[in-house]
Design brief:
single chain, 556 residues, alpha+beta, six-stranded antiparallel sheet, five-stranded antiparallel sheet
Length: 556
């Protein structure tokens, strides 16, 4: 098959990239022991990336270098991940959950220390600090978004299944759950209440207009009773607790306990979520104020709830068509906006910490779980491709992005956007280890968003259980190697799912169009045709449909 980018001097693009991949070295200058330890961990992951685009390759190197700079001792002697930019510290809503969950694939020891820091500094009454700083833990709000239990479980599943470590976090998270149930359900609804804007990290969002940023007296047990609308029954906080409890059930069973009690509590939280916060006419989740009124601000609360595994596939499809992929709502040129585009309160200003319009990188790295949990792999790439393009041409790793032109906004050296680039490259064109014990080899390449179309080719490597896997995608064919020997090849546009040893289990369709071709492995040729999001399982040398094709198109 002809190479997509041609042949130079008798050497194909794929051969050139593979040779460069094998020669690639991680070069990060460090001058501290903890910095060197973090670099050593990254090197041990075997992760390497090269591309036909020098800019793309350079930005990958920039991301690795700046990521290491975000790792430093905080609230103690252990080096943990910091938020970066102007934020010297580790926030529960982000750094301590979704950021560390992504970091776990690259620098797992630091990720584990980051999660453990919240348990180590837990207050006597069970409350987790909302952030860890140079001077210690801070408890003035709850600032909760991504479920910590999900992040910890995924770290545990990917990195050796250390039950002693898991038990410590499990006990701590159970105590924090009890604190929330006692102090953040003042109306007895079974849901979770927000007392201030900072509780959900939605700084400057129209969601919290006329509500203080902090609780009364900076005490997370109190809200201003003289405020006309507080407390809010909050959908994202309630969904978070529901998801937490699902994963606490998994942990309980892993540790030899009965998980049914946690599952019953999770179901009760989901029931309260729909009873209190869901408007069936709008198909949207809103805060409910003290007067029984919905706060009708359509924000990325929807994405947060969906990332907490709320709703079935039909529910998610409805949310896609009506909101997430709607260009009047959240599907800007560089999606997803923090407030719906057609809300009169939408403000695209991206040069400060705002959740009232601009696209925030925290939203983007939280989004993947929502889409992949429901098997919507193709639709997820429609967000990833333009954002990755903006990151590649950007000059710094910012917190916000202009949803109309992709320009980088507020702050720099920001770990969520750094990890966004590393994560998106691995999801689109790399080797991604999964907590269920599989590997994803994804046969896509970044495509050009701005100006003229440009062909790209990439190569990626990762070490898994002592074996080095390499993959090269020249824009036509995906080729995979294990310990230097050819393992399999497939046409672009599919994701090959293997076990951790490289044995093929399934294919996933990653293109809008049906991909027809052959999987070549061990001298055998297995023909197939696969539609978008379709899953074909490989059993006894033949493909069988495990999941039918399903696709939701953008709406307007």
């Amino acid at each position: 098959m002809a190479e997509a980018l041609g042949v130079s001097g008798g050497v194909s693009v794929a051969e050139t990239l593979l040779a460069r991949l094998r020669a690639a070295k991680v070069a990060v200058p460090v001058d501290t022991e903890h910095g060197q330890a973090a670099v050593d961990e990254f090197v041990a992951s075997g992760v390497a990336f090269v591309a036909s685009s020098p800019a793309m390759e350079q930005r990958f190197g920039d991301a690795v270098r700046e990521l290491i700079s975000c790792i430093k001792p905080t609230a103690g002697s252990d080096a943990i991940l910091n938020e970066g930019g102007i934020y010297y510290g580790c926030w529960l809503e982000s750094t301590g959950t979704i950021n560390a969950e992504l970091l776990s694939r690259f620098v797992p020891g630091v990720a584990g220390s980051t999660f453990a820091g919240f348990a180590r500094h837990q207050r006597e009454d069970g409350l987790f600090p909302y952030k860890l700083t140079q001077t210690g833990p801070v408890f003035s709000q709850i600032q909760t978004v991504t479920p910590l239990a999900r992040s910890v479980w995924n770290h545990f599943a990917l990195n050796g299944r250390d039950r002693d470590y898991l038990r410590k976090l499990y006990v701590a998270m159970g105590r924090n759950d009890a604190w929330l149930a006692r102090w953040r359900d003042t109306q007895g609804t079974g849901a979770v209440e927000a007392f201030c804007a900072f509780d959900t990290g939605h700084d400057l969002s129209a969601r919290f207009w006329h509500v203080p940023d902090s609780p009364e007296g900076n005490d997370p047990k109190r809200y201003r009773a003289d405020n006309p609308v507080l407390p809010f029954i909050a959908p994202d906080l309630t969904a978070n607790v529901a998801c937490q409890r699902d994963y606490l059930a998994l942990m309980a069973e892993e540790l030899g306990e009965d998980g049914s009690g946690w599952r019953d509590k999770a179901e009760a939280s989901r029931t309260a979520l729909f009873e209190q916060c869901f408007d069936p006419d709008d198909g949207f989740f809103y805060d409910l104020d003290r007067n029984g009124q919905f706060i009708r601000v359509q924000s990325d609360v929807l994405m947060r709830v969906l990332a907490c595994e709320v709703g079935d596939e039909d529910f998610f499809a409805e949310a896609l068509g009506r909101y997430l992929l709607n260009t009047r709502k959240f599907f800007a040129k560089y999606p997803f906006t923090s407030i719906a585009l057609d809300d009169p309160r939408f403000d695209p200003a991206f040069d400060y910490n705002s959740w009232c319009g601009p696209t925030n990188f925290l939203t983007l790295i939280r989004a993947a779980h929502a889409f992949e949990h429901h098997g919507r792999h193709v639709e997820l790439t429609w967000m990833m491709q333009p954002v990755l393009s903006a990151l590649v041409r950007g000059e710094r790793f910012a917190q916000t992005i202009n949803p109309f032109n992709g320009a980088m906004g507020f702050t720099e050296v920001y770990s969520p956007s750094i990890l966004c680039l590393l994560d998106f490259i691995e999801r689109l064109t790399g080797i991604l280890p999964r907590p269920e014990g599989t590997l994803w080899f994804t046969g896509l390449v970044p495509y050009q968003i701005e100006h003229r179309d440009v062909q790209h080719a990439t190569a990626y490597a990762r070490v898994v259980d002592g074996q080095r896997f390499e993959m090269v995608n020249d824009g036509v064919t995906l080729r995979v190697f294990r310990d230097g020997a050819p393992l399999f090849s497939a046409p672009k546009g599919v994701r090959v799912v293997t076990d951790r040893a490289g044995k093929i289990e399934a294919l996933i369709g990653m293109s809008v169009t049906t991909v027809a071709g052959a999987l070549e492995i061990g001298g055998a040729r297995l023909d197939f045709a696969i539609g978008p999001n379709e899953v074909l399982a490989l059993r006894d040398g033949a493909f069988t449909r495990q999941k039918s094709s399903r696709l939701t198109h953008p709406t307007y």
